[in-house]
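Holo model, zinc ion. Inputs:
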Amino acid sequence: MSRATSVDHDALLRRHGVQVTAQRLAVLRAVSDRPHSTADDICNVVRAEIGAISRQAVYDSLAALTEKALLRRIQPAGSPARYEDRVGDNHHHLICRTCGRMVDVDCAVGDTPCLTATDDSGYEVDEAEVIYWGRCPECVAATTSHHQQTAKQEQDRRV
Ligand SMILES: [Zn+2]
Ligand SMILES: [Zn+2]
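Output:
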């Protein structure tokens, strides 16, 4: 598969002082191709691409890349951590409670941290993480049509 227009991940790793390995490159590319994937998703993608690689090796690569700020780790409550390569812009996320789909939403204000604590208790705050929970359009549409079907079945039964 040719990725002529994609980012030069090789150079990116080197610029961040991360040793370039086939595994790290594959992990970075997988996250970049499918932002907000879980470690398990990444593992499957990487395995499909470079063959045998242990789950632990994928986890280690994700940890190393996150530590070097090449990846951002999002840990929504009650859900496995997700990874993305859109880093450093303090954007936020929308998550569907039904199917778990996660999408980006730009920061409401623009500066990091975009929210100011009313009382920071003396902490030096550098990030405000916001997750909007709800239902995605597909899930809303699915339940709506389901309700319509149920209503129709009840009508049919009454006839
Ligand atoms: Zn959904
Ligand atoms: Zn994101």
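The chain is about 40% helix and 15% strand. The pocket of zinc ion (ligand 1) is lined by residues 96, 98-99, 101, 135-136, 138-139 (CB under 6 Å).
Archived with the compound record.
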